[in-house]
C-alpha cells in the first residue's frame, strides 16, 4: 500500500491557528515554550509556500506574507490595552520570547546550512517586518498604543541578529524622538531600548551633527523628572567603566528606590566578573577599580542616607567588599545558608579587614570609621570571632592601630565589657608602645630638620614624599593609640603613673603635632580625677612652653624617665618651683625670636582651647584660669596676626561660656568684630555669639531684657546685608536654633527666614537652603504655638511675595502657589502628630486650620489681589484639614465669612468659584448639626463678633460690570486728583487704566469711601487720565491733610532696614522709581482686617452721585479754561518737603 502524502499547507488555516495559540498564552506563561514550537512550525510551513513569478526566475513569498499579516493582526488586538492588563502583558511577553526563540533557531540553521551573514533568512525578514510595523506605531495619537509599541521594541531589540542601516537609522531617530514624549511610561520604554542599543553604536559612522546614544541616555539619567525613566536606564545600560561616574551620581538621587538600586544592582553585582570566562579578575565596580574619592562617596552617601533600605543595601555592599578586596577578588569563602562564614575567623579575616581599611584615607574624615563600624554591625561572624593576639601589637601600622581602636569603640558602644577586657592590652605595656612610637616620630622630625638645614643634601621629590608619608603614618598610629588609651583600665597605679607622665611630657614638647593635642587631652582628662587638676596640669604646661628651662637644666623633651621616681600623688612629676621670668619685650626680639614666640603662643592657645572645651565648671571655681586669661588670651585678641587673633577669640569665647560676667562684658567686643572682620574671623565670632546666646539665655534674650530686641535686630540686619554664602548660612543656622529652642519667638524673624528661604538670590546657597528646609517643618511640628505663629505670618507674607513675584524677571523664584501649599502643610496638626509619632495628642480636634481659613477669607475681601492670586488663596481652602470637633461660634463665623464672600466679593474665574463652592459644601456637610439654626441676626447680637460685622459692613459689593484690578507689577504713574498726601479711603484703591477713547476726558475719580461702586453716569466714563492731574479750583469736602503717625513711619523704616531680601526688577524706568517713592510717602489707611480704625460711614448714594457730578463739572470747566497748563505732577507735590520735615521732627 503506498504511503500517504501529507496534505499541502493551507494558508487560510493561519487565521484559526494563531488565535488559538494566543488564546492559550494570554492565560498563563507556563505554556509559552510549547507554543513557541507550535508557532515556529506554522511559520516554517507557511514560508515553504511560494509563488513563481517572472517565468520562474524568482519566487514571491506569499506564505511568509500571510504569516506576517496574521501575526500582526494578533498584535493589533493587544496594543490598545492599557498598562497593567495581565492578558496583554503575557501576550507581549510571548511575542518577545518568540523573537528570541526564532533568532536562536536562525543561528542554528545558518551553522547547519553554511549560510553567509549577507544571506537573508525567514526569521530575519519576519523581525525586520515586525520592527517596521512597530516603528509606524510610535507616532500614534493614542498614548497607550505608543507605550505598547515602545514596550515591544524595548523587549525585542536585544534579540535582533542584524538589521540593515536604513532600518537602524529609522529605529534610532524614532526612539530618540520618543525619549522626549510627554508621557513618562513611554519615555521609560524608549530609554530602556536606547540603553540596550547604545553599546552597538559605532561612533565613527555618526554624522557630525549626531549625538551619540550613550550621551543622550546619560543626559536623561541625570535630568529626566520621572524616577521610572532613570531606573530603566540604570537597569539596561551596558556595564562598563564609562557609565560608572553617572551611576555614582545617582547615589544622591531624590528617589530612594533608585539609590538602593545603585548599591544592590550595580555596585555589588559587578564587583566580580559576571562569568568565569572573562579575562579580568575584577569587575568595573570592584573597590580596587574605584578611586579613593569614589569609594568614600559611596560609603558617605550610602551610610548617611535617610532611608533604612538604602542604608541596608550600602552596608551589605561593604560586607561584600571585605570578602572580595583581597587577592583581586579571587578569594572565596565557604558560607552557610545564612551567608555567614563557616570557619572561625582568624588571621585571614584580620588581613581582609586590613586590606579593607587600605581602601580609604584613614587620616581624613570619619568615612573609614563608619565603614568599619557598619561591617561589624552587618557581619556578626566577624565581630564575634575577631581577636587580637599579643604579636598583633608588636608591629603596629596605621591600619592595625585603627582596626584595634575601632573594634574597642564598637565593644564599648555595645557595652560588651567581656570583649573589651579580653582585647585591651595591659596599661603599662600600651604606655611603652605609645612612647616608642612617639620617640620614633620625634627622631624623624629632628632628622628631617637636619636634612633641610644641610646645604649639601640633595633629595629628589619621591624620597621627600616617602619621608612625609612615613611621618604621617607615625602620627596616625600615635593618634589611634591615644584614642584607644581613653578606654584602658587605669586601676593599675603603675600604669596610670606611666601614662600620666608620658602624656604630660608629650604636651610639654612643641614637636607634638597639633592634631594630636586633642587626643592627648582626652587621655589626660581620664587620668585626672577632676577638672581642677586638668586645668592645673595644662596651665603648668603652658607656663613651661612660654618660659622654657635653661639649656643647662633638665631636658624638656625627656619622656623616657622612670615613672616610679619623683611622682606626685596624682601621678604628675615633682619639680622644684621656678620663679617665672618676665617675657622679653617684643621690641627687643629679633625676627626669629618673634616668630618663635608667636609659634609658642599658637601652641599654648591650642592647648587652652582643648582644655576649655573639656571644662564644665564655672570660671569662678577655677581661679587658675585668671592668669592664662590675662597673660595669654587677652593679648592674643589684641594682636593683628590673623591666626593669633582667631585662636584668641575662640579661647575668649569658651571662657565666656563658663563665665556669665565675662560674657556680659565681652559680648560687645564680639559684635564689633562681626562688622569689620574678614570672613574667617566673622564665621568664628558668629559661632561664639550664638553659643553665648544659647548658654546664657536669661542674660541676653530674656523677656525683661531690653537688649534682646537689639541683638535680634542686629542679626537680621546682618543677614540682609551679608554677601558671603557661608556667613549667611551660619546666620540662618544660628537663628533657627534660637527659634527652635524657644528663645526667640518674634514673628518678624520667622518671616525673614521664609523670605531668605524662597529668595532667588539664595538659590545657589545649598547649605542655607538645606538648613531651612529642615528647620521649617521641625519648628512647625514641634508645638501648636509654633504652628499658630506660622499661620499668623502667612497673609502679610503672601502679600509681599506676590508683589515680588510680579516684579521678578527670572525663572528661579518660588511661586506664591508653592509657598501657600507649603504653609498648609506646615500648619497641618495631623501631619505634626504623625511627625512626632503620637507625642502630640488631640491633633484631630485642633482648630488651627479653622483659624487659617478665617484669615484667608478675610484677606479675600481685599481688592489688592488679582485673579490668579485670589485663586491660589481659594484653592488653599480645599487643602485645609477640618477638625472633627470645633466650637460652634468658630464654625458659624467661618460660614458667615463664606456667605459674605460669595455675595459681596465672589471670585471671577470658574476654577476659583468651583473651589469656593466645594469648600462651602464641605463645611456644610461636616458641621451640619452645628449650622442647623445658622442666622446672621443671631450672630450680630454677640458682643465678641462686633468687630467682625463692622468689617463686613464696610465691604462694598462689586458690580458685575466692574473691571478686575490691574495686576501688581505693572506700575503706572498716578494721574488722579488724589496725591501722595491724600488720605486713602481703603488699602485697595487703585487707579484705573487710561481709556483709549477721547483726548481731553477721563473716567471719573470717585471720592467716596469705596472705589467698588459702579458708576451710572455714561458721560463721565469717557474722560481721560489728564483730568485727574489738573489742579482743583475748589477744595474737595472729603479731603483732609494726613495725620502722620510717627510710630507707623518708624515701623516702616525699621522693616525696610531689616528686610533681608529686596527682590526687584533691574529694568524699571525712572517713572516707576518716582512712583515707588510717592507710594512710600503715602499714608494708606489699613483695612479692618488689619486692625485699622473704621472709616466714617459713606453718605447716601444719591447724595454722593450729585456731589461727584458737581465735582466733575468743576474739573471740566477748569480743564476748558486752562487746558494748556495740565501737568503730570500732583497738586500737593509742592508740600512734600514740608511734610517730610514735619515727620522728621516728630521722629
UniProtKB/TrEMBL annotation:
Predominant location: nucleus
GO cellular component: condensed chromosome; condensin complex
Cellular compartments annotated: Chromosome
Organism: Lentinus tigrinus ALCF2SS1-6
Family: Belongs to the CND3 (condensin subunit 3) family.
Keywords, sorted A to Z: Cell cycle, Cell division, Chromosome, DNA condensation, Mitosis
Domain Nuclear condensin complex subunit 3 C-terminal: 603-882
Low complexity bias locations: 976-990
SUPFAM superfamilies linked: ARM repeat (SSF48371)
Membrane-spanning intervals of the chain: none
UniProt feature, compositional bias: Acidic residues: 549-567, 1010-1020, 1065-1080, 1110-1123, 1134-1147
Ranges annotated as biased composition (Basic residues): 998-1007
Residue ranges of the region described as Disordered: 548-592, 957-1147
GO biological process: cell division; mitotic chromosome condensation
Protein name stated in the entry: ARM repeat-containing protein
PANTHER family, A to Z: CONDENSIN COMPLEX SUBUNIT 3, CONDENSIN COMPLEX SUBUNIT 3-RELATED
